[in-house]
Write a sequence for this structure.
């Protein structure tokens, strides 16, 4: 084959792979959203960062592979890569990634949860005693102030 056709085929292949990569990265964001609740502003920020990064990636692909010349078949190839990935294995990847993220966070935070629980359990009696003593002190101070107020009348 001629060099021109090989180069165009390579652009087509790279565009297809870029479409798949872009969708995989977006699936990471979707997995994060499934694993942890997000507020709307955070979703907006994530989507903005993703859109900017995707735009830069597509621009760099066209700039490096084809001297910045926009080709219709390359755009078609990017869209084809995105759709093929999305329609085939995306849902399984998202399910696996979100499960892994949930379990990882659970394992990472479990020692902290146990230590906080232990501290609360140990501190429960002193806290109750402190509360009782503070309540008694407040009552004594209140009665003393009331007595002084009545004397002053």
């Amino acid at each position: 084959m001629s060099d021109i056709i090989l180069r165009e085929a390579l652009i087509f292949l790279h565009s297809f792979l870029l479409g798949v990569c872009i969708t995989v990265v977006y699936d990471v964001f979707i997995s994060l959203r499934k694993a942890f609740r997000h507020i709307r502003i955070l979703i907006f920020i994530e989507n903005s960062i993703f859109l900017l990064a995707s735009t830069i990636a597509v621009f760099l692909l066209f700039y490096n592979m084809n001297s910045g010349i926009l080709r219709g078949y390359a755009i078609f190839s990017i869209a084809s890569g995105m759709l093929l990935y999305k329609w085939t294995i995306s849902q399984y990847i998202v399910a696996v990634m979100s499960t892994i993220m949930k379990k990882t966070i659970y394992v990472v935070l479990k020692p902290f949860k146990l230590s906080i629980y232990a501290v609360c359990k140990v501190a429960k009696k002193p806290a109750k005693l402190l509360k009782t003593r503070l309540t008694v002190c407040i009552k004594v101070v209140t009665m003393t102030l009331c007595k002084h107020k009545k004397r002053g009348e």
Q: What stands out?
A: DSSP finds four helices and no strands in the chain. The chain has a mean pLDDT of 84.
